[in-house]
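Hey, resending since the last one bounced:
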Amino acid sequence: MSEHFDPSDPGAAVMAFLTERHLATLTTRSPSDALQVAPVGFTYDPTTRLARVITWASAVKARNVEARPDAEVALCQVDGGRWLALHGRAVVRSDAESTAEGERRYEQRYRPPKSRPDRVVVEIMVERMLGRVPEPSS
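The structure tokens again:
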């Protein structure tokens, strides 16, 4: 059974799940309204409710977000029976401060990212969280 979580305070089990090393999928909408799904690494900050995906400027996911800033995007992380979907609107940031922050957070969760001169960060303002993330058994 799935449940809704508060993006500002999703609880300890959800935050633990969001810091484990798992990949996810990012679903965006193209200018023609087609869905595009891409595997991604991402990070989440409940204080700002921002999920961050580092990528490059010419990536389809970045181009879709720039073309459709009104369209909702979804990140979905799955591990066995645990899953979590984060929904919201996204923007693409290319300034040095935003890309450095995205890379720093990515390195904390995964590993140091390869350096790219065309690095951008897709920032998702998470409006809803839905999933199945049971509290650990004692």
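Helices lie at 12-19, 60-67, 96-109.

Sorry for the duplicate.
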